[in-house]
Amino acid sequence: MNAMIDITNAEKTFTMHLQGGVELPVVRGVSFHVVSGECVVLSGPSGAGKSSILKMIFGNYRCDGGRIGIRHQGTVIDLAIAEPRQVLSVRRSTIGYVSQFLRAVPRVATIDVVAEPLIVNGIVRAEARAQAGTLLRRLNIPERLWALPPSTFSGGEQQRVNIARGFISDLPILLLDEPTASLDAANRAVVVELIDQKKHQGVAMVAIVHDDEIRHLIADRIVDVTSFASAA
Amino acid sequence: MAEQTLDDQPLLVAENLGKTYGRLIACRDVSFALYPGEVLAVVGESGSGKSTLLQLLSAQLAPTAGSVSYRMRDGVLRDLSALGEAERRFLFRTDWGFVHQDPAQGLRMAVSAGANVGERLMAVGWNHYGRIRDTASSWLERVEIDTDRIDDAPRTYSGGMRQRLQIARNLVTEPRLVFMDEPTGGLDVSVQARLLDLMRNLVSELGLAAIVVTHDLAVARLLSHRVMVMKGGRVIETGLTDQVLDDPREPYTQLLVSSILPA
């Protein structure tokens, strides 16, 4: 088996020092793997720790125990103990993350927000922008908006910009946190298509989706996180 | 990849760095390595020792404990306290930049903007007036200062323009490392956003390494890859910037993060 993501007994607890040191267990015993070309959907009620697990795989939340094995440039890196420089390298060339909300940088034009991940990886600006434009057009963001910073856009438009930014790179792993939450039917269908394309390219994906119909369309396997939450 | 072999060796290394004034401990036991192209933010409140640390790292202050080493352009890591005068001058005039919170400290307020930028070029041996002026002018453009203002002195500039001019003056010699002390402090919020965006682009285009001291966590989030949180002269927490800010572990860091007013 050639897993792109291989998680064993990962766990996470928040210690709230400002609330008298209350321990807030989030997840424990998280174990699953994802292979190339497969989309694993995490299921479970709100608060079960689905987003936290995605954040742990991205190295955004620190892991208190266990192992998060990521296949990166021909070797396996354990993100649970990786150095910051390694995590950054993994994010640059292996793992992409589409969050629910766009963290907008002031003043940066939409087209550049989307093109940035390619530019960081050494693709010339004109080419990166051309690819960004193709994706924005596909996601129905009109060209007259491309030069504006996305901070003024509607929620659905911002999310589509975020999706374009997340899907533009050819990274072997993609994490999707509610990628279709505030989209209309037409744009949801585009996202499903994009996910399907990534599968054919061999991308390993972990997704959170609440919409049953979308889940049915994209999931190759479902991992129920309730057992990880109740163990915590 | 070629990029990786180059980046594999640290540019600056601090080991058990400390500074005491008599019984007062300004900074103690600071150890870290900074790599080429990496931006490190040092955060903490006033009096936490972050400005002292910046002065130690940039050889403006001698440590009472530990050492700072820097990889010179010949690839050799050298202890800053053992450098000769010529090597120190090379670092200050060419290979390093230092952006002060108050532009008046980093600029010569009574001479023209062009001369402020050109001066650093002349210090490294440039002597062709036309070339110096052209380079100064292109740098003013890069920091979004109207080139019509090249002959005006910075005392006629607004706060935001002065800060951008200070950045141009520092970057014109293509330094590999820039120290910044509260670079957006004292500026209006709208001016801050513009400056941050500009710095972010310049740092990534030029592949600069930078150490940015700030009390503003938003500045750290936007500019830095890694963050060190200081309190009482010590580093109490360190890690990837988004990790430390989204998942802070230490009580003091949790307090800092939770004290940000939502916009």
- What does the main sheet of chain A amount to? 5 strands, parallel
Helix content of chain A: 25-40%
Please report the two chains with the greatest interface, counting residues with C-beta closer than 8 angstroms to the partner's C-beta: A-B, 19 and 23 residues
Residue windows where pLDDT falls under 50 for at least 5 positions of chain B:
1-6
Summed up, the helix count of chain B is 11
Strands of chain A, count: 9
State the end-to-end distance of chain A. 29 Å
Distance between the termini of chain B: 41 Å
Strand order, largest beta sheet of chain A: 6-7-8-3-9
Q: Write down the secondary-structure element order of chain A.
A: EEEHEEHEHHHEHEHEH
Helix/strand structural class of chain B: alpha/beta
Strand arrangement, major sheet of chain B? 6-7-8-3-9-10
Strand content of chain A: 25-35%
SSE arrangement of chain B, N to C: HEEEHEEHEHHHHEHEHEEHH
- The share of residues in helices of chain B is 40-55%
**Form type of chain A:** globular
| Helix run count of chain A | 8
Structural class of chain A: alpha/beta
Number of strands of chain B: 10
Low-confidence stretches of chain A: none
Shape of chain B: globular
